[in-house]
Design brief:
This protein is an alpha+beta fold. The protein contains 6 helices and 5 strands; from the N terminus they run βββββαααααα. Helices cover 40% and strands 23% of the residues. A 5-stranded mixed β-barrel has the order 1-2-3-5-4.
Protein backbone atom coordinates (compact mmCIF):
# COMPACT_ATOMS: atom_id res chain seq x y z
CA UNK A 1 0.00 0.00 0.00
CA UNK A 2 1.68 3.18 -1.24
CA UNK A 3 1.68 6.25 0.99
CA UNK A 4 1.39 9.62 -0.78
CA UNK A 5 1.27 13.32 0.05
CA UNK A 6 -0.28 15.64 -2.55
CA UNK A 7 -1.23 19.29 -2.70
CA UNK A 8 -5.00 19.06 -3.18
CA UNK A 9 -8.22 21.02 -3.52
CA UNK A 10 -11.33 19.60 -1.86
CA UNK A 11 -14.26 19.36 -4.29
CA UNK A 12 -17.05 17.53 -2.46
CA UNK A 13 -17.77 15.32 0.55
CA UNK A 14 -20.48 12.69 1.11
CA UNK A 15 -21.58 11.07 4.39
CA UNK A 16 -20.50 7.45 4.63
CA UNK A 17 -21.27 4.93 7.37
CA UNK A 18 -21.78 6.34 10.87
CA UNK A 19 -18.92 8.83 11.17
CA UNK A 20 -16.96 8.67 7.91
CA UNK A 21 -16.89 10.80 4.77
CA UNK A 22 -16.29 10.06 1.12
CA UNK A 23 -14.09 12.90 -0.14
CA UNK A 24 -13.59 13.93 -3.75
CA UNK A 25 -10.36 15.90 -4.06
CA UNK A 26 -8.25 17.20 -6.92
CA UNK A 27 -4.51 16.61 -6.58
CA UNK A 28 -1.84 18.40 -8.53
CA UNK A 29 0.09 15.21 -9.35
CA UNK A 30 -2.55 12.45 -9.47
CA UNK A 31 -5.66 14.22 -10.77
CA UNK A 32 -9.09 13.80 -9.21
CA UNK A 33 -9.35 11.09 -6.56
CA UNK A 34 -11.98 9.85 -4.14
CA UNK A 35 -11.20 8.49 -0.72
CA UNK A 36 -12.59 7.51 2.66
CA UNK A 37 -11.89 9.77 5.64
CA UNK A 38 -12.44 7.61 8.70
CA UNK A 39 -14.15 9.29 11.70
CA UNK A 40 -14.09 12.64 9.86
CA UNK A 41 -17.62 13.53 11.08
CA UNK A 42 -16.74 13.23 14.75
CA UNK A 43 -16.25 16.46 16.77
CA UNK A 44 -12.57 15.81 17.46
CA UNK A 45 -11.65 14.62 13.99
CA UNK A 46 -8.01 14.99 12.99
CA UNK A 47 -9.15 16.44 9.65
CA UNK A 48 -10.62 19.55 11.28
CA UNK A 49 -11.75 22.14 8.71
CA UNK A 50 -9.48 20.68 6.05
CA UNK A 51 -12.31 18.91 4.23
CA UNK A 52 -14.43 22.02 3.60
CA UNK A 53 -15.29 22.74 -0.04
CA UNK A 54 -12.37 24.25 -2.04
CA UNK A 55 -9.98 24.13 0.91
CA UNK A 56 -6.38 23.84 -0.28
CA UNK A 57 -4.57 21.15 1.70
CA UNK A 58 -1.64 18.78 1.80
CA UNK A 59 -3.47 15.46 1.70
CA UNK A 60 -1.88 12.36 3.23
CA UNK A 61 -3.40 9.16 1.86
CA UNK A 62 -2.79 5.50 1.07
CA UNK A 63 -3.48 4.04 -2.35
CA UNK A 64 -3.99 0.32 -2.96
CA UNK A 65 -3.74 -1.23 -6.39
CA UNK A 66 -7.06 -2.07 -8.05
CA UNK A 67 -9.00 -0.01 -5.47
CA UNK A 68 -11.17 2.89 -6.60
CA UNK A 69 -11.18 4.61 -3.21
CA UNK A 70 -8.01 5.67 -1.44
CA UNK A 71 -7.71 5.84 2.36
CA UNK A 72 -7.24 9.33 3.75
CA UNK A 73 -4.91 9.51 6.73
CA UNK A 74 -4.84 13.25 7.49
CA UNK A 75 -4.58 16.65 5.84
CA UNK A 76 -2.68 19.84 6.58
CA UNK A 77 -4.74 22.94 5.84
CA UNK A 78 -2.96 25.42 3.55
CA UNK A 79 -5.86 27.76 2.84
CA UNK A 80 -9.49 27.84 3.89
CA UNK A 81 -12.24 29.66 1.97
CA UNK A 82 -14.14 30.39 5.19
CA UNK A 83 -13.60 34.17 4.88
CA UNK A 84 -15.48 34.18 1.56
CA UNK A 85 -18.65 32.66 3.04
CA UNK A 86 -20.01 35.97 4.35
CA UNK A 87 -21.32 36.82 0.85
CA UNK A 88 -24.20 34.63 -0.32
CA UNK A 89 -23.44 35.31 -3.99
CA UNK A 90 -19.80 34.34 -3.52
CA UNK A 91 -20.77 31.19 -1.60
CA UNK A 92 -23.08 30.08 -4.43
CA UNK A 93 -20.36 30.91 -6.98
CA UNK A 94 -17.85 28.78 -5.08
CA UNK A 95 -20.35 25.91 -5.04
CA UNK A 96 -20.66 26.24 -8.81
CA UNK A 97 -16.89 26.29 -9.35
CA UNK A 98 -16.40 23.22 -7.15
CA UNK A 99 -19.26 21.38 -8.88
CA UNK A 100 -17.93 22.32 -12.30
CA UNK A 101 -14.53 20.80 -11.49
CA UNK A 102 -16.15 17.73 -9.95
CA UNK A 103 -18.24 17.04 -13.05
CA UNK A 104 -15.70 17.88 -15.76
CA UNK A 105 -12.50 16.39 -14.38
CA UNK A 106 -11.95 12.70 -15.20
CA UNK A 107 -10.54 10.55 -12.38
CA UNK A 108 -6.83 9.78 -12.12
CA UNK A 109 -5.77 12.19 -14.88
CA UNK A 110 -3.36 14.95 -13.77
CA UNK A 111 -4.22 18.37 -15.16
CA UNK A 112 -1.80 20.97 -13.84
CA UNK A 113 -3.35 23.81 -15.88
CA UNK A 114 -6.78 23.12 -14.39
CA UNK A 115 -5.24 23.00 -10.92
CA UNK A 116 -3.53 26.35 -11.48
CA UNK A 117 -6.80 27.76 -12.82
CA UNK A 118 -8.61 26.97 -9.57
CA UNK A 119 -5.78 28.39 -7.46
CA UNK A 120 -5.71 31.62 -9.53
CA UNK A 121 -9.48 32.09 -9.18
CA UNK A 122 -9.35 31.53 -5.41
CA UNK A 123 -6.48 34.02 -5.15
CA UNK A 124 -8.52 36.55 -7.13
CA UNK A 125 -11.57 36.18 -4.89
CA UNK A 126 -9.54 36.40 -1.69
CA UNK A 127 -8.15 39.77 -2.80
CA UNK A 128 -11.43 41.19 -4.15
CA UNK A 129 -14.18 40.42 -1.68
CA UNK A 130 -17.05 42.20 -3.38
CA UNK A 131 -20.29 40.89 -4.88
CA UNK A 132 -19.31 41.77 -8.47
CA UNK A 133 -16.05 39.80 -8.55
CA UNK A 134 -17.81 36.44 -8.35
CA UNK A 135 -19.34 36.95 -11.81
CA UNK A 136 -15.89 37.48 -13.32
CA UNK A 137 -14.64 34.40 -11.46
CA UNK A 138 -17.58 32.22 -12.58
CA UNK A 139 -17.26 33.22 -16.24
CA UNK A 140 -13.47 32.95 -16.26
CA UNK A 141 -13.56 29.49 -14.65
CA UNK A 142 -16.36 28.29 -16.97
CA UNK A 143 -14.59 29.38 -20.14
CA UNK A 144 -11.25 27.88 -19.18
CA UNK A 145 -12.80 24.71 -17.70
CA UNK A 146 -14.55 23.74 -20.93
CA UNK A 147 -11.48 24.72 -22.93
CA UNK A 148 -9.07 22.69 -20.79
CA UNK A 149 -11.51 19.76 -20.89
CA UNK A 150 -11.26 19.77 -24.68
CA UNK A 151 -14.79 20.46 -25.87
CA UNK A 152 -15.27 24.23 -26.26
CA UNK A 153 -17.08 24.79 -29.58
CA UNK A 154 -16.93 28.09 -31.52
CA UNK A 155 -18.48 30.90 -29.51
CA UNK A 156 -21.66 32.12 -31.21
CA UNK A 157 -22.40 35.14 -29.04
CA UNK A 158 -22.80 38.86 -29.60
CA UNK A 159 -19.64 40.94 -30.29
CA UNK A 160 -19.48 42.45 -26.80
CA UNK A 161 -19.64 39.03 -25.12
CA UNK A 162 -17.15 37.60 -27.61
CA UNK A 163 -14.70 40.40 -26.78
CA UNK A 164 -15.04 39.54 -23.07
CA UNK A 165 -14.37 35.86 -23.78
CA UNK A 166 -11.33 36.60 -25.94
CA UNK A 167 -9.88 38.85 -23.23
CA UNK A 168 -10.35 36.08 -20.67
CA UNK A 169 -8.29 33.72 -22.82
CA UNK A 170 -5.53 36.30 -23.21
CA UNK A 171 -5.13 37.70 -19.68
CA UNK A 172 -4.87 36.29 -16.14
CA UNK A 173 -8.03 36.81 -14.14
CA UNK A 174 -6.43 39.55 -12.02
CA UNK A 175 -5.62 41.63 -15.11
CA UNK A 176 -9.06 41.70 -16.74
CA UNK A 177 -10.40 45.11 -17.74
CA UNK A 178 -12.43 46.73 -14.93
CA UNK A 179 -16.15 46.51 -15.62
CA UNK A 180 -19.37 46.23 -13.66
CA UNK A 181 -19.79 42.44 -13.48
CA UNK A 182 -23.54 42.13 -13.13
CA UNK A 183 -26.11 39.49 -13.97
CA UNK A 184 -26.85 41.34 -17.21
CA UNK A 185 -23.17 41.50 -18.17
CA UNK A 186 -22.77 37.78 -17.59
CA UNK A 187 -26.08 36.59 -19.04
CA UNK A 188 -25.21 35.85 -22.69
CA UNK A 189 -21.94 34.02 -22.09
CA UNK A 190 -23.22 32.23 -19.00
CA UNK A 191 -26.28 30.82 -20.76
CA UNK A 192 -24.17 29.58 -23.68
CA UNK A 193 -21.62 27.96 -21.39
CA UNK A 194 -24.27 26.30 -19.25
CA UNK A 195 -25.90 24.77 -22.33
CA UNK A 196 -22.50 23.52 -23.52
CA UNK A 197 -21.65 22.02 -20.14
CA UNK A 198 -25.06 20.41 -19.78
CA UNK A 199 -24.73 18.75 -23.18
CA UNK A 200 -21.39 17.26 -22.20
CA UNK A 201 -22.19 15.96 -18.73
CA UNK A 202 -25.83 15.13 -19.59
CA UNK A 203 -27.25 16.68 -16.42
CA UNK A 204 -28.08 20.12 -15.08
CA UNK A 205 -25.55 21.52 -12.61
CA UNK A 206 -27.23 21.91 -9.24
CA UNK A 207 -26.06 25.48 -8.61
CA UNK A 208 -27.03 26.92 -12.01
CA UNK A 209 -30.62 27.81 -10.92
CA UNK A 210 -29.23 29.60 -7.85
CA UNK A 211 -26.80 31.62 -9.95
CA UNK A 212 -29.53 32.55 -12.43
CA UNK A 213 -31.77 33.78 -9.61
CA UNK A 214 -29.18 36.16 -8.13
Amino acid sequence: MASRVSESIILRTYPFAEADLIVSFFTRDQGKLRGVARRARRPKSSFGAGLERLSVVQMHYYQRENRELVTLDSCDLIRSQFALQSSYETAVGLDYIAELAEELLPPHEPNDRFFRLLIAVLDFLSLRRDSHSIWAAVLYTSLWAVRLSGFLPPLRVNPDSLAIAQEMFEKPIGQLSPRAWTRQTASDLRQFLHRTIEEQIEKRLLTVPLLESL
